[in-house]
User: What shape does this take?
Amino acid sequence: MEKIIQKLDSIEANLITKFKILQWVVSAALALVLVFLIILVYKG
Assistant: This one.
């Protein structure tokens, strides 16, 4: 039983790490899109 709980804990930690990476990637992409739009607006 304890091993199952340990496995679930490590899976949860894995998911949290992946989610944080995903969140970082999404915010970086949004920042790039914003910069791109600002450049387009200023050049247009």
Remarks:
- The chain is about 95% helix and 0% strand.
- Helices lie at 2-43.
- Residues 2-43 form the longest helix (42 residues).
